[in-house]
Amino acid sequence: MNQIRAAIKGIGASLPEYILTNDEISQMVDTSDEWIMTRIGIKERRILREAGKGTSDLGAAAVKELLDKTHTKPEEVDLLICATVTPDMQFPATANVISDKLGIKNAFSYDLNAGCSGFLYALSTASKFVESGRYKKVVVVGAEKMSSIVDYTDRATCPIFGDGAGAVLLEPTTEDVGIIDEILQSDGIGRVHLHQKAGGSVKPASFETVAAREHFIYQEGQAVFKWAVSKMADVSVEIMKRNNITPENLAWLVPHQANMRIIEATANRMGISKDQVMINIEKFGNTTAATLPLCLYEWEPRLKKGDNIILAAFGAGFTWGAMYLKWAYDFGK
Ligand code: UT7
Hints:
alpha/beta; Peroxisomal Thiolase, Chain A, domain 1; globular; binds oxa(dethia)-CoA
């Protein structure tokens, strides 16, 4: 019998309607469209503004589209993993909320937090369940309402992040497609450079933490940048080497969308051209665990069965990694 691999069989996505432009951000803090475009590469990002709406609303909409597109009934899903750093609540898991909203009743579901590498980690975890042979339909959703933890008085972080969600369906295959290899790493030493100071068990919410604006993203941009540039490229080059992937036979790099300069540096180290790289940072900014599936969603019509694809990410933790897969279907067939 051929080895069972996990293959992506469909993609759904959801983006809030409201578009927050650089010009609008320039009215909130001392910045400019020119600075944001040259230093980060973002023109606009989507923001979920409706009161009472959270990450599960974006996640559920993405999964709903995924189920519709793949003709999957909610009750057929075996497992749903939600990668997020902005859960609806500390507990229960946003994955449980998404499953409930969609009538996914015969599955177990849980959240996974690996910062901006969350989708990659979740995809890896989900693939192991599929490869075991026991689980046939596994949904992985990356969903974030980053605007809920962004300080719109802090010019160092507020231009970067956006809201959105993307979801994929993993199924078993014995064909020569699907997830083939991965390198996942983490180093908690990086936590000092990128974290949320309060609201966890070390520093629960109090009047003081709110007054000190400690419930927002804290990032030392330059330190994170240096790590991201070297680590994301290191694992991407390593996964190419050990799978005999060359710039000529690689169809696409799908990089985390944190900064255009990090994406370009990674592509340069891999020796590939920019037209082999999925880039949508200009439109959506950094949606943390949602960047990779949002790219796949947008490029889905252009992907061909057998395409060699490398996913790569770097994020809070620090966490980082790269995954090699062969695309499993032609769009619309
Ligand atoms: O997704 C999770 C992983 N996160 C990342 O990968 C993010 C990695 N880091 C970055 O992308 C970049 O470091 C940032 C985009 C966050 C910042 O860019 P930078 O080129 O590293 O800027 P910087 O922090 O070194 O700041 C340079 C200057 C400073 O002014 P002085 O001290 O040189 O006078 C900042 O105060 O730019 C200033 N600055 C701004 N100026 C205008 C910082 N933010 C802004 C701003 N507009 N929004």
